[in-house]
């Protein structure tokens, strides 16, 4: 008797998991700078950091990162 494999395709959904929260970060992308805000629970904190950084340095281009947690559940 030869072994057989049976595949079962199951539909899943993925969505934001509120209990995981969201973190906000800003990174200065001016050549040679490398400054970053660090992770914050509030978007305003990361934005305020970028505004202060611009005021101190004149750097005006940032990469913003929003991180959340996602949960996958079976759709059945």
Automatic annotation (TrEMBL):
InterPro entries: DUF7848
Residue span, DUF7848 domain: 1-75
A UniProt-annotated Pfam family: DUF7848
Name of the protein in its database record: DUF7848 domain-containing protein
Organism: Streptomyces sindenensis
